[in-house]
Amino acid sequence: MRRPLLTALSAGAMLLPVLAGCGSDPPVFIDDSKDTGTSADSGATDSAKPDSATPEDSAKEDSSADSAPVDSGVDTGSIDTGAVDTGTIDTGSVDTGVDTGTADTGSVDTGSDTGVSDTGSDTGTLTLDAACDSWTGDFCSRYDTCSSFFLKYVFGDVTKCKERLKISCLSHFGATGSGFTPGKVVTCGKSYATKSCLDMFDGKLTTECSIPGPVINGKACGSNAQCASGFCALEVSSTCGACAPPPAAGTACLKGQCAEGMDCVSGLCQVPGRLGDACSTSKPCGASFSCFGGKCVTPGKGGEACDASQISAKDCSVIDGLYCDPSTSLCKFYALAKPGESCGALTAYTACSSSGFCKIASGSTTGTCMSSAGDGASCDDTTGPKCMSPAYCLSSVCRLSDPSSCK
User: Fold this and answer.
1) pLDDT tens string 193-233
2) Which of 83-92, 127-136, 244-253, 324-333 shows the lowest mean pLDDT across its residues?
3) Which of 332, 334, 292 is nearest to 82 (CA)?
4) Which residue among 42, 160, 327, 369 has the highest number of C-beta atoms inside a 10 angstrom radius?
5) Helix axes 158-168, 128-146, angle to 10 degrees
6) Is 223 within 8 Å of 403 (Cβ atoms)?
7) What is the pTM of this model?
8) pLDDT tens-digit profile of 24-68?
9) b/e string for 215-233 if b means 16 or more Cβ within 10 A?
10) CA–CA separation, 354 vs 70, rounded Å?
11) Three-class SS state of 394
């Protein structure tokens, strides 16, 4: 099994903000037990969380649920990243709580009723708005370098990536109780230039982005950046939760969530496997690898032999935009279509860009790309339309988290 890719990439996922260190994963549980093929749209969420909540991880349901099963060899739901359908092309991810690392709690005023203490401010004239422009530019540039395919799948282009993630930057880094100042936001963004793509897709933060807030355990939060522990345990299907100690590797997930850089698998927090590590359905590899022969291996490249079930051969590199063509058992590049264009099992399996949804009629293997739903508009991760990160589909509405509103 391969680790579910970026929950931010999937419908309703907020993995990108999580990977960036400014967002939290809303625990929206999705049953992915019936999704077994290679598909092109809906997200992936761990059966236990998105990181079990679907934002940074998990395998998801067939996104074309309104169409009857077709014996076409290709699943029309989400982009399958592994043998157990481990990842849609889901955002990120991720893509996860807001992965902000372990915090120094010594400066927290535990006598405060709100659990929030004075964090100080920048002495210069840098505004949060300007800082977020810098941060989104750095993050989206690095994301594009690591996987241009996924950036296009989620946002369409770098410009839209910066526009959308600025929403998360302002709301999470600027939230009441956030440990970030405008200067720290810029420094966090600059650190992405040295961050490996492996760490990016596994949700590991740089030290510069692991900034705790002053909110003590048990107090309300909506972002990891607010918590002294660096971990905000969100309520299921909610944008708010409470600060808590981050679950350690091998321990039970907390409300389906784990600390940054870990996945909730079968109810336990696990560090995704890297090259050469042992792997199985209960111990997945990171999104950059394929589990074959009980070991995490480098996935197949274009034209190489493959097996989406990872039994007779390794799977293909979904991060590079590849899938295992069921008719040839060779790795082939996905195509991406714009809203209004054809999608599905065409000459190459065609997914929808910009968080679009491939609407396929019953009995057919091809359909038409629907545009993503706007913030506040109706959505449905199963029948479309989907939301564009950082919005996620909650109670059939595309919602944006607002950590400052969590009381």
Assistant:
1) 998 999 988 888 899 999 999 999 999 999 999 999 999 99
2) 83-92
3) 292
4) 42
5) 130
6) yes
7) 0.74
8) 444 433 223 333 333 334 333 333 332 322 222 322 333 333 333
9) bbbebbbbbbbbbbbbbbb
10) 26
11) strand
